[in-house]
Amino acid sequence: MEFLQQNWYWAALAAVSGAFLLFDAIRQRGDSSSLSPVQATLKINREDALVIDVREQSEYAQGHIPNAKHIPLGAIEQRAGELESYRERPVILCCASGARSSGAAATLRKLGFQHVFNLQGGLSGWQSAGQPVSRKRKK
């Protein structure tokens, strides 16, 4: 008890930190439009999901998810016609961290795509999970 009285700020910091972690865990669990790298791999392998990388060309060239289609974020709406055959299939959007792809996912949903997912953590989360990265250009 004496330790807590003398170090109340550390205890408060630990409580606040724990609350943030708990809040984030609850928020993530309720978000079915976001996939972990493992969940994304399962969707790719089991449901033939299309992966769309929305980063800029220079970022894409440095490494991307194997067989990912490259459509920069700024061109998603204009190039949505290229994705018509995927309207009923799962589409996973990816960027560097998950922020840009979240906006792209919202755009595709607005355009009527049914099964759109955002890759949690983007390519960095993908690599952290030990998933493969390719430097080949998809045709």
TrEMBL record:
The keyword Transmembrane applies. PROSITE patterns: RHODANESE_3 (PS50206). Residues 45-135 form the Rhodanese domain. Pfam families: Rhodanese. Keywords: Membrane, Transmembrane, Transmembrane helix. It comes from the Bacteria. The keyword Disulfide bond does not apply. The chain crosses the membrane at residues 6-26. This is Rhodanese-like domain-containing protein. It comes from Nitrogeniibacter mangrovi. The lineage of its organism: Bacteria, Pseudomonadati, Pseudomonadota, Betaproteobacteria, Rhodocyclales.
